Amino acid sequence: MSAYLTESGRELLNLIGWAGVALIGVAVVAIYLCVKNAVYLGWMGWAFRRHIARLQREPEKLDAAKGVRSGNPLVRVFSEAVRAACREHEGLRAELAFLFHKNFRAVNRGMTLLRLISVISPLLGLLGTVLGISKVFRVVAGQTLVNPALLANGIWEALTTTIIGLSITVPVLCLYYFLRMQINGFQIELMEYATRFSPLSE
User: Fold this and answer.
1) Fewest CB atoms within 10 A around its CB: which of 87, 164, 174, 183?
2) How many CB atoms lie within 10 A of CB 155?
3) Which three-class secondary structure string do you get for the chain?
4) What is the pTM of this model?
């Protein structure tokens, strides 16, 4: 069984090369980050809207000190912004921007990695293609009679990494912008609700 796996591994390596293996690793990381960020942001928005709906029904239950200790970054930002607005009405937008940046560091890191993956994947694919084509030409150069089938098969194998790279880039980039729009929507919601629940807005 181990010999079979080793042979399969060799065949895969011959087919996609080391750049292709790196692309498979990048794809695994991309899938993990996409799922993690999508689920986390979905839960965060759902829990925050439940929190706001409860406060709209019973405004007297607004407890900024308790909200600051919440596990939900949106609730923390909202609570800190409302508490800060008690001291200073002007600069609420700047306060929210600062709090959002402070509480969303982990999310922003994940988003930056997704953006980086979308940029690196086609470059790794291109690297694999260039390496594959140079390997084909090196083999062909050593032959006196060039076999067109061998040449075509080698170029097809070389182009496989470009296909893999683009297959990673397109969905990751789409999901990146979808999640980025969701985060921007959170910022707008936070501004609206923080202004509405600020004691100085009454």
Assistant:
1) 87
2) 14
3) CHHHHHHHHHHHHHHHHHHHHHHHHHHHHHHHHHHHHHHHHHHHHHHHHHHHHHHHHCHHHCCHHHHCCCCCHHHHHHHHHHHHHHHCCCCHHHHHHHHHHHHCHHHHHHHHHHHHHHHHHHHHHHHHHHHHHHHHHHHHHCCCCCCHHHHHHHHHHHHHHHHHHHHHHHHHHHHHHHHHHHHHHHHHHHHHHHHHHCHHHC
4) 0.78
Here the tokens at position 86 are 């008690």
Contact of 110 with 38, CB cutoff 8 Å: no
Rounded to the nearest 10 degrees, how much is the dihedral formed by the CA atoms of 9, 114, 131, 15?
30
Residue 169 has a CB neighbour count (10 Å cut-off) of: 21
Cα–Cα distance measured from residue 162 to residue 155, given in angstroms and rounded to the nearest whole number: 11
- The torsion of the CA quartet 141, 147, 151, 154, rounded to 10 degrees, works out to -100
pLDDT single digits (tens) 25-69 = 999 999 999 999 999 999 999 999 988 888 888 877 777 677 777
- Is 37 exposed, middle or buried (CB count within 10 Å of its CB: 0-12, 13-18, 19+)? buried
Whether residue 36 contacts residue 54, with contact meaning beta carbons closer than 8 Å, is answered with no
